[in-house]
Amino acid sequence: MTITIIGLGPGSPEMLTRRAWEILSNASEIYVRTARHPTLEGLPSSVRVKSFDYLYEQAATFSQVYLQVADEVLRLGAAADLIYCVPGHPLVGEASVTDLLKRAGAAGIQTEVIAGLSFVEPALTALGLDALDGLQVVDALEVAAAHHPALDPDRPALLAQVYNRAVASDVKLTLLNQYPPEHAVALLQAVGTQFEQVIHLPLATIDRRDDLAHLTTLYVPPLPHVSGFAAFQATIARLRAPAGCPWDREQTHQSLRKYLLEETYEVLEALDADDPEALCEELGDLLLQIVLHVQIAVEAEEFRMPEVIAGIDAKIKRRHPHVFGEVKVNNSDDVTRNWQTIKQAEAEANGKAAQRLSALDGIPRGLPALAEADAIAEKAARLNFDWRSIEGVLDKVLEEVREIRSAADQAEREDELGDVFFALANLARWLKIDPESALRSASAKFSARFREVERLAREQGRSMKEMTDLELDALWNEAKQLVGRAFD
To answer: What is the C-alpha to C-alpha distance for residues 97 and 110, in angstroms, rounded to an integer?
Structure first.
C-alpha cells in the first residue's frame, strides 16, 4: 500500500507542479486536510474530494487535529492506495504529514511526497526578498504561545497562520518583548492567488484588522540596527581576531577583572539614580564584559557561549519547579526554601557539598563589606542562628552603640564600630532591606544636599569653613527644602 502526499501550493491552481497536476487530474478520489483551499476549485470535476474538516470541530487544539488526521490517513492507507493533499508544500508547516511519515514505515505503508510551492515562495515574490538573506520561517501559533520570540531580530521573519485577531494579538504581545510597537511590519493576504495583498502597518496594530484569515502571513523585517545576540558576539570575535583591536587581543580573564567590577558598579549607580536610559547603556557595557570573557574562553578552548547559556537555563528551570514543573508554592518564602533545598542537592550531587565545612563557605570573597555582612547573617539565620524577634535585633544595635562609648582605645573603638555595622546589617535583613542599597541611597541623598549647601555658600560669597554651626545648619535646612523631594 502507498500513500501519496501532494502539496497543493499556495492557493492558485496555476501554481501546482506538473507532477502534482498529472496525479490529481487522473485521480478518482483524493483526501484533503482541509477543503478551504482555492486550488481545489481548479481540479477536474471527476475528482471526488473528501476532507477532514469535520475533525476541527471535534478536537480542542490544532495539534490534536493533526494527530487525528494522520490516524485516519494511516487507517485508510492500510486498506488501499490513497492520495492525501495538503496546502502549500507537504513539509512546510504540516504537522499531519511529519507525523504520518514517522509512523507509516512502522505500519508497513510506503509513502511518496510530491513537492509543492509553499506560502514562502510567493511571499518572497510579493516582498522582493531573497530567502538566503537569513530568512526565518516560523509558525505564528508557536510564537503566540511563547513569552519571548525565538527570532533573531537582525534577520527577516515570516510567521505563517495568523488566521484571526486572537492569534494576532498573542503574536503581537510576544513580539513586543523584542521589537518596538512602531516597528514596520507587513500582513500578507492570500499570496499566490488573485486576491493577494501586502498591507504595511506598525506591529502594534496587527490585531486591529477584521480581514485576518487562514491565508494570512506576517512579515517582520529586521530591526534597523544590530540588535541580536549572535551579531554582537560576531562584533566581539572580530575585536579579538588577528586583524582586530590590539588592546582587546591583549586582554585575559584576569586583566578584565577590574573592568567587570567597574561596570557592575556603574549598573548599580544607574539603578540608584532610577535612570532607565543610563541603565540601558550600562547593562550594555556589562554585557560587553561577559561576551569578552566568553570569547577569550572560546579561544582557549575552555567553553563556548552555548555552554554558558545551556548551563544557566537548565539551572533556572531546575530551581523553579513551581514554574517549569509540578511543584506548588504559596508565596516567595516557599520559593526561597525550595531554591535552597535544590541548591543543596546539586552541591551534594557534584561533590561540592563535601568540600564545604561551613555554611559560610559559599559566600564570594570579593563582596563589599556591608553586603558580605548581610550574606553571612542570612546564612547563619538559615541554620536557626538568629534572634526570635526584631526587638532583639534593635536591642543588639543599641547595645553595640553603647559599647563604642565605653571603648578604651582606638583599636577597641574600631572593633565595636564593626559590631555596630554588623548589627545594622542584621536589622536590615529583618526589615527586608538591602543594606548596601540603603547606604548608597543615604550617601546619594547626603551628597545632593551637601552640594546644594556649597552652592548656597558660593551665592553668599562665603567659605563654608568660615561659617558658624548655626549658619551651616540654616544652609542645610534650606538645602533639604530645595532637593529633599527627590529623596524623601
So the answer is: 13
pLDDT tens profile 305-345: 999 999 999 999 999 999 999 999 999 888 988 888 888 88
Cβ count within 10 A of residue 343: 15
Q: How far apart are the first and last CA of the chain?
A: 81
* Last residue in a domain, options 83, 100, 118: 118
Would you state the cell numbers that stand for residue 221, as one nine-digit string? 523585517
Q: Which residues contact 324 (CB under 8 A, 6 or more apart)?
A: 317
User: Are residues 353 and 347 in contact, defined by beta-carbon separation less than 8 angstroms?
Assistant: yes
Q: How far apart are CA 197 and CA 122, in angstroms?
A: 11
CB 8 within 8 A of CB 49: no
Per DSSP bridges, beta strands 216-220 and 157-160 are antiparallel
360 assigned to some structural domain: no
- CA 202-206-211 angle, 5° bins: 130
Strand partners, 110: 2
How far, in Å, CA of 330 to CA of 35, rounded?
Answer: 49
Give the domain extent around 389: 369-433
Helix (H) or strand (E) holding 198: strand 197-202
* Cα-only R_g, the chain: 33
Residue 364 lies in a domain: no
Domain CATH number, residue 400: 1.10.287.1080
Amino acid at site 85: C
Give the model confidence (pLDDT) of 76-98 as tens digits. Answer: 999 999 999 999 999 998 989 99
